[in-house]
């Protein structure tokens, strides 16, 4: 096995944020799923599940996520009393995990940096709320990807289930890339359960931890964006 080939594959994968509508052939999706069998897991439990949507189901999901997103706009715009009104309307985000929870102080600068670099790359000014809303809304459409995926984890084996799901998902993304298929993880889709539950029947013990998109990158400028790839930090050894 050639280590350079692996390094090339790992470097080639990046988060694509605009997809061509071309479908991914079923056989290719099956081959990618076959590769996910190779991921290790806690006591070989594989405590996760995947759901995949294409075609009309994917389009219904896009519409449902956009509708959910749009009713949260007053909250995101920090309009007074918006959170209370949203809660009273029964439309507050109903995701299993709080995707909007604040980042720890030491990690926040990295999140802010990638956000501002991405918006700058897209030519969206800091105070251009309309353009920013439109950019976030594109997440809810899975950036137009033909395949929308969901990752669920067993609530009884956390945090190891989340760890295993992550290992599996990167195996999936790398296999996809090796098949010429691009991807984007979509944590934003885990903000809500309603759209997912309207389309899939997940077992009661499984929690929605992230969505993702699969398809073929368009030549939109947003796909020229590359996030900084910092080295994994090493914990200093005691002297
Ligand atoms: C679990 C997870 C959820 C993510 N959710 C989103 C998302 O909702 N929208 C988005 O544009 N990017 C999302 N990303 C992509 C990250 O922003 C991206 O991986 C990071 O900036 C590094 O860039 P790269 O993937 O191009 O290497 C997510 C990544 C992960 C691992």
Fold blueprint:
Layout (H helix, E strand, L loop, with lengths): L2 H10 L6 E2 L5 H11 L11 E6 L1 H17 L1 H4 L5 H7 L19 H14 L7 H12 L6 E8 L5 H19 L3 E5 L7 H6 L6 E12 L22
Antiparallel strand pairs: 1-5, 2-3, 3-5, 4-5
The structure holds flavin mononucleotide.
3D structure, described in words:
The protein has 239 residues and is α+β, with helices and mostly antiparallel strands. It has one domain: NADH Oxidase (3-Layer(aba) Sandwich), CATH 3.40.109.10. Strands 1, 2, 3, 4 and 5 form a 5-stranded antiparallel β-sheet that branches. Helix 2 packs across helix 8. The site of flavin mononucleotide has 12 residues, from strand 4.
Descriptive labels:
binds flavin mononucleotide, alpha+beta, five-stranded antiparallel beta sheet, globular, single chain, 239 residues, 14% strand
> Helix and strand string, N-terminal first?
HEHEHHHHHEHEHE
Question: First CA to last CA: what distance?
Answer: 38 Å
- Count of folded domains: 1
Shape: globular
Class in CATH?
A: Alpha Beta
Low-confidence stretches: none
The largest β sheet comes out as: 5 strands, antiparallel
Number of helices: 9
Question: Helicity, in percent?
Answer: 40-55%
* Strand portion: 5-15%
CATH superfamily heading:
NADH Oxidase
On the 0-100 scale, what is the average pLDDT? 97
Radius of gyration: 19 Å
